[in-house]
Design brief:
alpha/beta, Nucleotidyltransferase, domain 5, six-stranded mixed β-sheet, 39% helix, globular
């Protein structure tokens, strides 16, 4: 995996993709017992956004990369902006600023993985298979290191397939219990994982309207793992 030996870890995971052909996971791996450092970095970043005169992002607002890339804030119009820029640009730059913050977080590594759907396959099955393969890979890595890991995933509690992926792991398991499913709006590091997932997706999908962020992940977090094809 990303480091050796692999310490006990918490994985903050979010998904992205096009809901048709490409399923993707993005994650932050945090050394167990060291999450206060990354959270402190993220809170300082959020304070900077709140103080930015060219944005209207409040402390409780969720940072959703899809909305930011579209230049959508609250509101984009009526907020001052740097001369010569569109009202959307400051919000798009929030993603770049988020990636820079994530890249500087202590005790954190970053990664992404994806799977392409074959013709005729239901996308939901592809997404489920991607998560199961990823969980098996993480479990094997921690088994080799003789450590354990825990997953926190952006969800509302109804994602039963994610639980099945953990319960199908052979024993002795190195993934602790089922994934903890929490809406990203309630967890700052899940919002950070959302930035990773969407940026990794754009690196692969290369949507023309998102050309500005095609290389942001490689540029701003060069040590990031992936996107891995699983």
């Amino acid at each position: 995996m990303t480091i050796a030996p692999l310490p006990p870890s918490i994985y903050f995971v979010d998904d992205s993709g096009d809901s048709r052909q490409l399923a993707l996971l993005g994650w932050l791996r945090v050394d167990l017992g060291h999450s206060s450092g990354p959270i402190g970095h993220w809170q300082a970043f959020r304070s900077e956004l709140h103080a930015d005169p060219y944005l209207d992002i409040r402390p409780g607002d969720r940072l959703h990369a899809v909305s930011l890339a579209g230049g959508r804030g609250r509101p984009v119009y009526g907020v001052p902006r740097p001369p010569g820029t569109s009202p959307k640009q400051p919000y798009r730059e929030v993603i770049r600023r988020a990636l820079t913050t994530i890249g500087s977080m202590p005790a954190v590594t970053v990664g992404s993985a994806y799977r392409m759907a074959e013709p005729g396959r239901q996308f939901g099955h592809v997404k489920q298979e991607l998560y199961e393969t990823w969980v098996q890979r993480i479990n094997a890595a921690h088994a080799t290191a003789e450590t354990h890991a825990f997953v926190i995933f952006d969800g509302n509690g109804t994602e039963t397939g994610l639980r099945r992926a953990h319960r199908r792991l052979p024993g002795p398991r190195h993934m602790i219990g089922d994934p903890c499913l929490i809406p990203a709006r309630h967890n700052p590091l899940l919002q950070a994982a959302d930035q990773i997932a969407y940026t990794a997706y754009q690196q692969l999908a290369r949507q023309p309207q998102r050309r500005f962020m095609w290389d942001w992940l490689k540029e701003l977090i060069p040590h990031a793992e992936g996107p891995l094809q699983l």
